[in-house]
């Protein structure tokens, strides 16, 4: 846990590049000076990110309780138990949430970005107002959608019944078939503004001449979208989808507040399962094992993201 | 004018309007519903079907919030923790971002990736050990634990924001300071940081917003004394059999206000500040 894990030596070994007579002899080399500048930050990250992540995964190999001291090495037992049981259900549910809560806000964000990139009136005000869902705290998003999806007095029931889409009020968040969809709708609402802003920024870089040339050649709006706009946005779309996927794969707040993983575990994901196993079940070994498997999957996504960002010149 | 109609046919403008009305409605109606419920008398919210337009406007939900003694404490806790987190993150990440931006050393890229990816790992897993760690040092239910845990996500964010900001400051400024005889540390403190005020403020506001919105760390690491608004509101309102929705929407509105205000401030800094600072300085 000590600050020594902050990768010493990676920065300090570069010798001073300037001739020795140029400056007072006791002056640090640039590499060492940079290392000193980074030391407080790296020490903090080592102590509160790297060490806890590694230590949490190490508990996968122990039988250990949150509330009692001591632990016993059990090898792969926690992991094999999970792989023979709950893991696949959790993986499936996490994937359903991740895919749903990535694709839906992407489509909403893309449509709005395209619409607000035209010269319709009031677009500046709309761009600002539509950021609100992204700004409000996740807990507030949860409250608001719990209220909208409320079984007895909710707006969703009232509106859908008025439109004739349902016959009687539904308990959206308490139904095992609807709870996941309801949470994904709430997450979609909270996520689309960021995607919209990113895509709008990307759209500004599409050269007008290309559109005009395509139009001269007789391409319609839809054709131009697929032939000119979309290829131009490819890089930014990739980044946005990857990041959303990484965030959703570990999303906790909305699920925990809105359903608590229920009903009957129907909206449980890795995030809520690890949390409940550790802090309500006190079973750190099982939580660590789940976390370890979760991290392996996440590491793959993060590696893809970092490589892709590098290629796109974002880093 | 002719160019406009050439590029945007009637059909695509109709499509744009349809998207704005339907999807913009999806974005803004819930906001309206939060506002409407917050200003509706509590008993009016227990009615089905709900009235889309409030039958009566009132401030009683807000005044009733004042009777909840814990809420004021949660609010103060949220402010203290978010502000301290923002200040600490900006100070620490300014030096780190500067090193990434203006120095070339071995391992620089790997370290930058390390910082970038360090915010992408699950907080629930981090907490398994952070809880034990803070417990061992008797830091549970303290501001220290909350600030340190919030730093796990604000620090990487600020480092990257500030690195990007320092990249826009020309190296010739650093060189000029060196020629004038300023030490490297002095260059940072007297030349770079004053020029970077807009960037530092923007990073600080972003960190404040992220800290303000945190739920899981405060839920786990803080008890009744030091907990912040998000877990505080969950405990205060969702435990009851019938939630007080009107009051909860009023509280939600108040909890959202600081971040919306912070963002309006942030927007101005981001637009006006980034390039102007270096040139005028």
UniProtKB/TrEMBL annotation, chain A:
Q: Where in the cell is it found?
A: Cell membrane
Instruction: Please name the InterPro entries in this protein's record.
Output: MetI-like, MetI-like_sf
Q: Which GO terms describe its cellular component?
A: plasma membrane
Query: What processes in GO biological process is this protein linked to?
Result: transmembrane transport
Residues annotated as domain ABC transmembrane type-1: 91-305
Q: What is this protein called?
A: Sugar ABC transporter permease
Spell out the family assignment given in the record's similarity comment.
Belongs to the binding-protein-dependent transport system permease family.
CDD domains in UniProt: TM_PBP2
Give the source's domain of life in one word. Answer: Bacteria
Membrane-spanning residues where?
33-54, 90-116, 128-149, 169-185, 222-243, 287-306
What organism does the UniProt record list as the source? Micromonospora costi
One matching Pfam family: BPD_transp_1
Q: Which residues form a coiled coil?
A: none
Segments carrying the region annotation (Disordered) are 1-25
Q: Is the keyword Cell membrane in the record?
A: yes
Q: Which UniProt keywords apply?
A: Cell membrane, Membrane, Transmembrane, Transmembrane helix, Transport
**UniProt topology in membrane:** Multi-pass membrane protein
